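Order emerges. As here.
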Amino acid sequence: MTHQRPDHTDRPPADASMSLLNEIMRNPLDLGYSAAARRRTRQDLAGASKTSSHMSRVVVLVVSLALGVTTTMAIKELRARDEVISSARTLLVDEITERQETRASLEELAAQRQQSVDQLRSQILEEQEPELISQVTTDQLRSGVLPVQGPGVKITVRDGSGADLDANRRVHDADIRVVVNGLWSLGAEAITINGQRLTTTSAIRSAGAAILVDLTGVSAPYRIEAIGDPDVFDQQFPTSAAAEQLEALNDSFGITWEIERQDAISAPAGSNRSLIHASPVTDESS
């Protein structure tokens, strides 16, 4: 009898029988569970992003509030300082104004008393030595302690543009002195600077940014009026050394000037300064 081997052709392969198990091993969760897990992950990420955005907004709000408070406090402090500075400036201006008014009153009183002294002196001279009256009057006119009037010129000198930022563009006391000396050299008989009469003992100097004539402050524009021959001033001053310096100042710093004829100039009496150290020369001292 012939032994026949069993026919295994009808039996499924081992892999086919393990397909379900393999599928379970490869995909332990079905599609529904996987989709749900992915949605939950996206929601968690979105929630975290919203939380982070909310925290960022809170931080920005806190920082903005802190900056606002700091800025407000700084502004209040600056305003307080400005108020203090403004108050101090106001007090200083008021004090300067008050002292200027006091000085003006004292000058007026001194002028009145000087006029009384001059009248008394004239009366005495008329009685005792009438020939000296003319000499005294001439000396007073030359020294600048008597008011005078007459024709002449007015020279106006102005600061250059930007003088507040550049001191070189401001008119200095030396510039005024140059103009005054130029007018004296051309025969001026009386000179005023912004209404302040120059005498034989007058001084033109600076105090910081201000220009003082004797002890009185003057400011730009500077009006220098001179009594004398208008024709001489018109013809000779524009070619003088003083005019050359003014032109140089104009070219370098924009300082401007102009000269005008005046038919009538009034020059008030200057202050009669007492001499402390000087005394007349006598025959014995010579």
Observations:
- Residues 34 and 102 are 101 Å apart (CA to CA).
